[in-house]
From TrEMBL:
Region of interest: Disordered: 51-75
Subunit composition and interactions: Part of the 50S ribosomal subunit.
Signal sequence segment: none
Name of the protein described by the UniProt record: Large ribosomal subunit protein uL4
Cellular component, GO, one term: ribosome
Lineage of the species this protein comes from: Bacteria, Pseudomonadati, Bacteroidota, Cytophagia, Cytophagales
Keywords, alphabetical: Ribonucleoprotein, Ribosomal protein, RNA-binding, rRNA-binding
Length: 209
């Protein structure tokens, strides 16, 4: 697949670049994408939920009424879950929701996500750029030039660039990451991928090990 390289003003630079068939041309594996996204979302969960069970409620342990003769059901403790303020039956406990996923599956998932976007013509290759200083207006000018303001975008850089990252950090629906930190969730969540030209070689090195 061949794409034109554009600059941050939205102009065609006249250069063409071929996307790696080993990444952008693979047959998308939907199940691998599902597993990787599921793992990403599971890892975002804090898992700090907790409810007191019968043994943890701070109440008296005395028998609240006599066993027989009251006309009602027997009751031995105010901690019983049937009473207001009693312990929760099988309440939630702190836990880790994360699970293991093989590296090859994660790699396949990312390749599949790139292939899905390539098939949908949702990828733009940008000429390498940077900003002199972090200014949100500078990043908004780039999105304006590309007619992408208000669109979910993911910009992939070859390495961390503080000025570019800080410029786009507060822009709604815009996310900036690096080639070594890109994940399947962000790829699938974005409506448009903006890939810096130097980032393509980094992606090829990382995903074709």
């Amino acid at each position: 697949m061949e794409l034109s390289v554009i600059n941050i003003k939205g102009e065609d630079t006249g250069k063409k670049i071929s996307l790696s068939e080993d990444i952008f041309g693979v047959e998308p594996n939907e199940h691998a994408i599902y597993l990787d996204v599921k793992q990403y979302l599971a890892n975002q969960r804090q898992g700090t939920h907790k409810a007191k069970e019968r043994a943890e409620v701070s109440y008296s342990t005395r028998k609240i009424k006599r066993q027989k003769g009251t006309g009602g059901a027997r009751a031995g403790s105010i901690k019983s879950p049937v009473f207001v303020g009693g312990g929760r039956i099988f309440g939630p406990r702190p836990r880790d929701y994360g699970f293991k996923l093989n590296k090859k599956v994660k790699t396949l998932a990312r390749k599949s996500a790139f292939a899905v976007k390539a098939n949908a013509n949702s990828i733009s290759v940008l000429e390498a750029f940077t900003f002199d200083a972090p200014k949100t207006k500078s990043y908004l000018n780039v999105l304006n030039a590309l007619s992408l303001v208000g669109t979910k975008t993911l910009l992939i850089l070859p390495a961390n660039d503080a000025n570019v990252y800080l410029s786009g950090r507060n822009v709604p629906k815009a996310k900036i990451t690096t080639a070594d930190m890109v994940n399947t969730y962000d790829l699938m969540n974005a409506d448009r991928l903006l890939i810096s030209e130097p980032a393509l070689s980094v992606l090829e090195t990382l995903l074709n090990k």
